[in-house]
Known about the structure:
By secondary structure, the chain is an all-alpha fold. It folds into two domains: 6-107 and 122-185, no CATH class; 191-276 and 355-486, no CATH class. It contains 18 helices and no strands. The chain has helices spanning 6-22, 27-43, 50-69, 73-110, 128-143, 153-161, 174-177, 189-222, 229-260, 278-284, 287-298, 308-326, 330-348, 368-389, 393-403, 413-419, 424-441, 458-474.
Amino acid sequence: MFFNSIDFAIFLPIVFILYWFVTNNNLRAQNLLILIASYIFYGWWDWRFLSLILFSSIIDYSIGMKLGSEEKPKIRKYLLWSSIFVNLGFLGFFKYYNFFLDNFIKAYSFFGSEIQISSLNIILPVGISFYTFQTLSYTIDIYKRKLEPTKDFIVFSAFVSFFPQLVAGPIERATNLLPQFYKKRKFNYTQAVDGMHQILWGLFKKIVIADNCALFANDIFNNYNDYSGSTLLIGGIFFAFQIYGDFSGYSDIAIGTSRLFGFNLMQNFNFPYFSRDMAEFWRRWHISLSTWFRDYLYIPLGGSRGGTSMKIRNTFIIFIVSGFWHGANWTYVFWGLLNAIYFLPLMLLNKNRNNTNTVAEGKLLPNFREISQITFTFFITVLAWIFFRSENITHAFLYLKKMFSASLIHSPYKDLWTINTGNKIIYLTVFLTLFIITEWLQRNKNHALEFKNRNIPKIFYWVFYYVLIIACFIMNGVQQDFIYFQF
């Protein structure tokens, strides 16, 4: 079920009414309703995968209970590794089996021998990377004695399958989300209104920005030989806004929807394209994943406590694994490697914590130095996104070769106008400008439509909301899948 679908537009009000008016004041009934709604939401794609998420819930619930009562270190470690093996085993089979098989066959044939092994027709379960990491955080935190295991299977299952963030995050920690299922929840009008505002901004990001940038990015990447270098650069920029609008838009809708039901999820994006260096970018982009890898991989490996060689090793591991998490393609690995190379000089020079505040804080506009830093960081991010978007490594390098050719100085106007007839490019340019300005003015807020503490007449807010709603109808063309559903 897509957030930007008629199905969800019907589903959400029904669940909302049942939650607050039928099961109100009954915490157990509310949790059960969330669990049932979550399974309906997830089963809307393919009901067969409900057994997978149920099995994962049973395994981690059982292991968590055992970890809570077991004191012997050897047995506790065995239980932890059992959870890791089962969860990553499922993830590895469904997501990476054919990838490893194909590369094994290619490596074998490299030495002059042929091997015949048939690949499997495996369907990747939606959101498996997200809920796998969420359940892993539960067992790891219990093992580290940071969390007490829950005895309520309904609560735990609802935590694993919580429908707003089930298929594309944020990847919630058990220490944050799980306790919220035990607290009595009362309807908070202010919180609900703020959630609706965040949902609206998320829909605007997805429908108006991401889906329309995708029309141009897809055409340019698929036919890069037909276009000038300047058009290819524009294509990379379009994809940068597509993936940001798509993924952060999903997170906004997920967080806003959760607030309608009295839950608070972590912020997953914090205006990353206003970052002044790559270290700041990674503190602001997909925060739930980057902090997950920091806490459960980078720090256990030694983090930055060791010598220079250990710091370099751990940095490359964390970024390459992060890239590989995104999918079974060498392009993602190379994307992770490239980001490690971007990040490494900052860490080695102890400059990775230079920019921890909001850019141009307290000012309307940034200074020249900040503009230069933001522009450079965005440019190298776009270069990395080209590898992320390309079909394979060869495609990415050919794209870059054409982009940095002499045609880079040519005007992209004619190319862009022929990609999509009508005034689509004009409307997109207008709404992209509106999008960037709004995010810049709201860069110190939790989301772009959080207007509290601003002395602006209410009529302005309502006009702006209606502009966004109208834009969603005007620019609602070919519906694009959420990019991160495939991860």
